[in-house]
Amino acid sequence: MKRSAKWYNNQLFPWLLPIVFIVLWQLLGQYKILTSTLLPTPVEIAQAGIRLFKTGDLQEHVLISTQRALIGFFIGGAVGFALGLFNGTILFFERLTDTTIQMVRTIPHLALIPLVILWFGIDESAKIFLVAVGVMFPIYINTFNGIKNVDRKLIEMGTVYGLSKWKLFTNIILPGSLPSILVGIRYALGVMWMSLIVAETIGADSGIGFMATNAREFMQMDIVVLTIVLYAILGKLSDVIAKLFEKRLLKWNAAFNK
After folding, report:
1. Is residue 50 part of a domain?
2. Transmembrane helix as a keyword (predicted)?
């Protein structure tokens, strides 16, 4: 049993399916089963990336998109965490605001685009606002549920031992809710990039979404697919960083220390 467990624990194993997919994709394009006008090959996409890298356009647009995503993530994440914290620990706030937040949460945040354009126009604040709204709710709901699901017996034990409210929070409530909060962050990172993709295709003059829109108008399919690949890479990189934080912060939890 131990011997069979070793081969799939290899660091390269998770990349097996993507590599097979890329090789198959290249072969289909190489033998003209898929035409370049329909779907360019990975080699053609890589060549487009190198071309844009040499001109400096690739780095510029990726940096701008990353800045928008991170600013929106930190604003929405901070608001979502604060609301989840207050509603999870103070019954008054939960009764006052949770029902309203849950109602607003059911509205697709991308449906707000017409209103956002009227409120903010099509400048940076509109894109950041859409990302922030998308990120806020996953972090809120996971923070709120994480705090609510902390073992009440542990809280009672801490109270019996005379822990102050601050120590009760930092030593019992926060560590107990952290797995749920980190799941919310990982989910929110995916929503962050999805929101940005839509936001950047609306009146943008820079960013990865602008590259995609501009390339579509000139039928540059290699650049259009390249932008999709860039979003996928950035999304994967975000998830990898989140998992590293997860491992570091949850070393005490056996389920996350494998």
Report:
1. no
2. yes
